[in-house]
Specification:
CATH topology of the largest domain in chain B: Rossmann fold
CATH superfamily of the largest domain in chain A: MetI-like
CATH architecture of the largest domain in chain B: 3-Layer(aba) Sandwich
CATH class of the largest domain in chain B: Alpha Beta
Distance between the termini of chain B: 36 Å
Radius of gyration of chain A: 24 Å
Radius of gyration of chain B: 24 Å
Largest sheet of chain B: 6 strands, mixed
CATH topology of the largest domain in chain A: MetI-like fold
Largest interface: A-B, 24 and 28 residues
Oligomer: heterodimer
Strand content of chain B: 25-35%
Number of helices of chain A: 12
Helix content of chain A: over 70%
Chain lengths: 288, 374
Amino acid sequence: MSAVAEERSGGLGLIRRRTRQRRAETFDRPRFLWIFTILMLVFLFVPVLVVILYSFNGQPSLVVMRGFSTQWYHEAITSGTWRGSLEVSIEIALVTMAACAVGGTLLAFGLDRANRHLARASESMLVLRLVSPETATAVASLLLFTQLGLTLSSETIVIAHIAVCLPFVAIVVRSRLALVNPELEDSAMDLGATRLRAIWLVVMPLLWPTLAAASMLCFVLSFDDFITSLFTSGVGTPPLPVRIYSMLRTGVTPVVNAIGVVMMLIAGGALIVALSMMRVGRSRSSLS
Amino acid sequence: MSSEAQASLQSVTKNFDGAIAVDDLSLEIMRGEFLSILGPSGCGKTTTLRMLGGFLIPDVGEIFLGGVNVTGVPPYRRDVNTVFQSYALFEHLDVADNVAFGLRRKRVGKPEIAKRVGEMLDLVGLRERARAKPAELSGGQQQRVALARALVNMPAVLLLDEPLGALDLKLRREMQIELKRIQREVGVTFVFVTHDQEEALTMSDRIAVMNHGKLQQVGRPAEIYEAPVNEFVAGFIGASNLLPGTVTGGHVALSGGVQMRLDGSRASAFRDGEEVVVSVRPEKLTITQPTPDTWVHVDGRIVDVVYLGAATNVTLEAGGDLHLLAIEFHASGRQQDRLAPGTEVAVSWDPEDALVLSNSRQVADDPPPQPKET
């Protein structure tokens, strides 16, 4: 790192540290607030810990813990039905993610470049889609698919998932795009790039971290989605959440705990990747 | 169009949502000259520049580059490059890649690119920072990268959109000299947009003054300063006392009953009863010194005195509503104590040093005539 950058970041760090100190000194804070933090964390993570604990249960019970074994993981991975569902879930999530990344980015550019009234109207509609109750939109998807005469399958699930996740990518990428200096694109065009080349060469490099993070979150949303999947799944192997739900009718075994842990690991991994990418994007944009 | 014109705008008009930004502007830019487009914010200077760059297409009129009509040609097919106000450096590329960007788009060979980028970085003194990212550079260095990135393409015309605006005063002065040196060295035609009249006066071969989308005057810095064609130019370039008056029988009657004699040729240029504006530069005003009878004499009171080191700015009030700004240069041994606020003094100026500007040439909505500080 150069001296200038070091000096700059050092200066910022110093300011931040000082404000934190001042805040700590100025206010006469109660000392017991950490108790609430602990309580909150316990409240949030006890269910998770229970699932993890029982996934190693030595006997086939969901309520009594005795002994330690990895048999449920073994069953989850070797059983054809569970593996099939896991694969379907991952497949659906990957296709949804890819489609949302491309579609959401295009939509974001559209919102950024369209005339202001049109863009504002479209954006409100996107937000509306984001906040509308999933049960309602899932039922609506089901009705639409049956009216169109489509067979419910992984494909219909993917279509419905894209509709759920696309607004998210579009809104996140658009908000990043709004921060990009329009003179960058002008400048690339001034130096001989057509508009599309200019966008690809100088705008997209700034969007990558945001887009990657948004895509990862799409993956998690789709992978974990139950409501929409339940209404739009039909023939073929159901995705994991639907499989777990249907298990409730036939009798739940502790394998569900192991499946749950596997799902958490996959979703958690994707989330960590997403968050770290967002951080990269933020630190980069704060420099510019 | 003259054969020497590198670029020319012919009767160009541009509207934005019905608001006129550039109004019937014609301007010729000569080969190798440093031309400044000067005007207050919102005067249409940046719009003019963006039309030259190809980012905006004029509603009416045509733009020529080297004799070729380029009115509708997009920026990437114009032999023009721009240094943007925000520099618009590509943050994800290092300095050398930023500078090489234009050459790469033109598919120039690798060894040629390396050579030209190296030369350009030498020219702006950034050879050692070739591998640095823009964010690691200071404002002045970023500015040089932006300049190098545009100039490496050796455009027919280099457009600069207030490139020094973000720099502090000292750095700005340095960059003014630096820019002028680089322009002389490479011989490229520069069109420099600025709202800073001092910057324009220091750097330019010619200045085009704009206001309200209209071209007010084009000329060498000295011409613009010494012989402004209207009240706006007189007020915008340097400080000037702009005094409204009426022509009556070979005199201009200023407010407060002050009369200024017009010599023969000037007297015949104006009708009797015509509204005019008299422009007197602050340095042409003399305070309490004995002056010839032919000069205009006014009794005034000192309102304010501002010491500026090499000179003192004196604000005066005469005849109630006549506000005057005078600059007294500190010649050795001259007594400055006599210039105290509240002191009654005699102010005078030579009518020869005053410009009489016809009111009809002035553009509507101009600021009221008052002494203007720079």
